[in-house]
Specification:
Low-confidence stretches: 171-179
Radius of gyration: 27 Å
Largest sheet: 5 strands, mixed
Strand order of the largest sheet: 4-3-7-5-6
Shape: elongated
Order of helices and strands: HEEEHEEHEEEEHH
Mean pLDDT: 89
Length: 179
């Protein structure tokens, strides 16, 4: 056999094998991407606003999580915080039970974190620089005995500006979230 005849006899099966490999690769890629979890939506950045000389509880937005096995624990804590003027947009269960209280915020100098930590002086603080929305997450767990007797009622702002969560800054806030 000549080289030309060999090529003519293997050209079609070789092409079919290459096409089959391409189809199998595309099917594996499609299946992997179709079954992958959808990534969470990134938080919307906060809005820098002039709020006056003091940061008040009404400027802060909170999410409370129940880190105990007692029903309604976070809801009772949210009732007290709402009575003091905080905006609680979510009450839910924590992924697992914890001991004590955890506060997660953008950093420990942020006015909303300073204000919340004054209510929970023994809480463990976790800084999360990815919390661009400036919403504070509080997880109340076993051992939570209550709030501080004399928490701050405001935090002074040197320039009168604070980064307010978009949910609090816009007029449509009440229609977007319910707790």
């Amino acid at each position: 056999m000549t080289a030309r005849r060999v090529w003519l006899s293997i050209k079609t099966p070789l092409t079919m094998l290459l096409l089959l490999g391409l189809v199998l690769f595309a099917a594996a890629w499609g299946y992997r991407n179709a079954t992958a979890p959808i990534p969470p939506r990134p938080p919307e950045p906060c809005v820098d606003q002039a709020v006056g000389p003091k940061y008040l509880p009404s400027h802060a937005v909170l999410r409370l999580y129940n880190g105990t096995e007692t029903n309604g624990f976070a809801k009772r804590a949210a009732t007290i915080l709402r009575a003091d003027g905080f905006r609680v947009i979510r009450i839910a269960n924590a992924p697992q039970p914890i001991n004590g209280v955890t506060v997660v915020g953008v950093n420990d100098k942020s006015p909303e974190v300073v204000l919340v930590r004054s209510y929970l002086p023994n809480a463990t603080f976790i800084a999360d620089p990815n919390k661009l929305d400036h919403v504070v997450d509080i997880t109340v767990g076993k051992g939570f005995t209550g709030f501080a007797k004399n928490p701050l009622d405001s935090v002074p702002l040197p320039n009168g500006h604070a980064c307010i969560p978009r949910i609090q800054a816009g007029a449509e806030a009440d229609s977007l979230y319910t707790a």
